[in-house]
Amino acid sequence: MMRRCVELSADAVRAHELPFSCVICRDGEIVVEATNRVARDGDVTRHAEIVAISQAQKILGRKDLSDCTLYSNVEPCPMCSFPIRETRIGRVVYSISSPMMGGFSKWDVLSDQEISDVMPQVFGGVPQISAGLMYRDAAAVWRSWNPLFWFGIRLRGCLAESNNDAMATLQTGQPPRSLWKRLAASLAQALPGKRASEAQVASSSRPQAKSAA
Ligand SMILES: [Zn+2]
To answer: 102 C-alpha to center of ligand 1: Å?
Structure first.
């Protein structure tokens, strides 16, 4: 699946897009494959993952994609990570990590347990997240597309470097916590003692400049 995803990222370049691509599969079969359509559609929201998720829902005739795995050549951004959580995709695999723009590395939408605990009707549990698979192949597409851009974007830390293709599971899947566990957590939050101690910590951790002023 990732091999196909990397091929698609090269297709994206040929279509005058940035090399971003996505494959969604289910039971070992590809449900849908997509590239970025930002340039062609003149629309910054047309990321490969969003295009793929939208089509997968139409093809399968349902919003719930919990039995699907999403492959992406680059770590999904936060915008794409929200529909991943809303459609309850069970597993996310990507090649190149995105420390500056990632929906896991930077703004952690992908593995935020709280949103599924508090709103389990809207958000699925935390998906299993794996990174690094076929990094060298994925990076080679970027490098051959624009060596200078690839050098610059890594120099600024926007996309991470890796020395190998080994896939690492960064996050195991976590279902939303049970109603009783959520109630217990809510009660613990609502306890006056807890609130008071939190307020104390918050005020003591404020910058010194406030008291100096
Ligand atoms: Zn995105």
So the answer is: 8
Residues near 20 by beta carbon (within 8 Å), at least 6 away in sequence: 9, 12, 35, 36, 47, 48, 72, 73, 74
18 three-state secondary structure: coil
Cα 209 to chain centroid, rounded:
37
- Give the environment of ion ligand 1: residues with CB less than 5 A: 47, 77, 79-80
Chain mean position to CA 19: 17
State pLDDT tens for residues 94-151: 999 999 999 999 999 999 998 998 889 899 999 999 999 999 999 999 999 999 989 9
SS3 90: coil
Q: If phi over 0 gives left and psi between -120 and 50 gives alpha, with beta otherwise, what is residue 132? A: left
Q: What is the pTM of this model?
A: 0.82
Q: How far is the CA of 52 from the centre of ligand 1 (A)?
A: 11
In whole angstroms, what is the distance from residue 7 CA to residue 21 CA? 9
Tell me the CA–centroid distance for residue 45 and ligand 1, in Å. Answer: 7
* Cβ pair 151, 202 in contact under 8 A: no
Separation of CA 63 from chain center:
18
User: Residue 31 corresponds to which tokens in the numbers above?
Assistant: 């449900």
- The CA 80 to ligand 1 mean position distance, Å, reads 4
Q: Is the pLDDT at 206 greater than 60, yes or no?
A: no
| Tally of helices (H runs) and strands (E runs) in the chain | 10, 6
